[in-house]
Give the backbone structure.
Amino acid sequence: MKNLKLFLVAGLLTVSAPAFAQFANTGNNSGSKRSSSSASAAVTEKTYSRIELSYNPISITNDAGDDDFTTDLTGISFGYVKGFSVSKKYPIYVEAGLRLTYAFNSQSFEDYFDDDYYEGAGDIKHSYLGLTIPVNVAYKFAIPNSEVSITPFVGVTLKGNILGKEKYEWSDEMEEAAEYSDVELIDEKDMFDKDDVGKDYQWKRFQFGWNIGANVSYNQFNVGFSYGSDFSELCEDTKTSNWAISVGYNF
């Protein structure tokens, strides 16, 4: 339902954008030549490119049973975006890109499981590496009498999951107890290995999702914000969501 609401909002934005642009451009015509030329540049620009660096936290949520179980990772992304004009009259663009993301976290077992039973057991670390291909529809609004533009966008993503690891750093007490009980402690799990995590929790290599956001550009410099989630599951009853704050350079 939340996804449906987001796309309805995005659809209304896309439908109303030409009318808003018509109004903005009319205002520009009654102002200075600089304002008029800025609006014209926004309409006639054929292509643009952008490189960007993002702070990109990721949440992995399993919603099986009564309670959701979420793992939050700190993510950093580096990406490239290319925009192509698809209208001679309005500044509507199709954007395609490539984004490489590395995400990680480290926390104690009792915090991870939210259970004092695991107090003193040690730490668990997660690491993730993925490659995302976003394809978006964007509309560029030129701000009159300035070099600023605002570009909201909405689209779909194809994500390739390259690496997923869980590493365990056991406390001395746990290692001593395991040795005394003749139990072998696991040091690491590969999330793509069925033997390590089981069939239901084995991660998929490819996922399909969506994202929505906006970019603000001043001359060649860009700041953006976006949010996205999955259509397809990462594993049984498990999906990811992410948001990003980015800085970039247009050329």
Summary: The chain has one domain: 2-250. Residues 11 and 62 are 29 Å apart (CA to CA). The domain at 2-250 is CATH 2.40.160.20 (Porin). DSSP finds five helices and eleven strands in the chain.
